[in-house]
Amino acid sequence: MLGNKFNPTRCDVENNKLIYWFNGQMNYRSIETVKEFEKLLFPVGTYFLNNHYDLLPKHIKDEYKRPLKATTTNTNGVQLTGTGAGNTLSDLPKFNTTEANGLIVRTATQTLLDAKMLPPSKQLFKELLHTNELCILFADTNVGKSILAAQIADTVSRGSTQYGFNCDSEPLKVGYFDFELSDIQLYKRYSNQDDEPHKFCDNFYRVTVNIDAEQPKDVTIEDYIATQIESSILEHQFNFVIIDNISYLKHDTTTTKDATPLMRLLNNIKRKYSITMIVIAHTPKRDTTKPLTMNDLAGSRALLSFADSCFAIGTSQQDNAIRYIKQLKARYTEILYDGNNVIVCTLQKDNSNLCFDFNNFGKESDHLKVLSEDETTKLGNDIIDSYLRGTSYRDIAKNLNCSLRKVQTEITKYKEQQGLSDF
To answer: What DSSP assignment string belongs to 162-214?
Structure first.
């Protein structure tokens, strides 16, 4: 079950269940009877008796008139407190769990039994997001990443279905770490023509940088903010966190060297406090004639390797107000909203609330840009002109806002027409 060093980050007792957060997981242990409690006595029950005795139900207190006091040593050589009410340490079960160098070692069967005791995962924003996930949301500039993220935060903080997006969880306490908008920008976004602000749920907290705070001289701004994020999560007991956006924590996430430590840090925070986290990221300028893929996310391999889920927003070429959401990675479910079944929405102002309103499902290809024959010819000519000026393939693609494959295809065709060779 658990190793010798048991130090949960949070504890509670509810409906004859011990609830504690340990090694990034929320755990439930039934104590309907004294016998059930005795099975948990080391280390869980012992910890509660010594540290949270007043929280325990009456039938446990009647059996254990006082917190454990006497000490002895268990089979692993660890000093334990003794028991009251006639129980002896020799009666306690011996667990086949060890800790070595910070690693938890359990049999596969015990892992499954422990997992069975955990609460089931719940949908927080359709099948796109589940509890205890680290999720990445990305899109191009001015597409609506922050708007959708705030809508998710509002939905989760209420624990309700809004604008066609269901949330199956009870209301959660949300911390939105906003490193993008000023207060006045936020007000303009969430107020109506009569100058009335939108009423968010009181479970929804916005966290911004305190520019007057003194930053330690020997710490980078990125490390300082990361530390402050973790401190805020712990202090305010946030269950759900949104970071808008990742570039504030690490300016360059395009390389594995920079992105991996950051994502490992965020994943550890998620697991340590058993929270759900959305990280917002930008995508470089992309070819809007092509479908959204994981490759559109800068530093995609390093970022996504630590993410449990990922979805992206695209702008429809049919209408400037139409957006579509595409699911790119999922662990709790299969990919439901792929290119053949994207979620189509309208970005609209509902009184004082700027939001994504669900329309229907559709094909991504219906929303991609289609070049006319003249545009296609011009793009091909521009690619060749850039190539002849000595511009690299990647810079051509970036400058002309087209895919690298398109550049390679046009240049290969040009070489064939000219009888040129790469060798």
So the answer is: BTTB---SPP--EEEEESS--HHHHHHHTB-TTSPBP---TTEEEE---TTSP
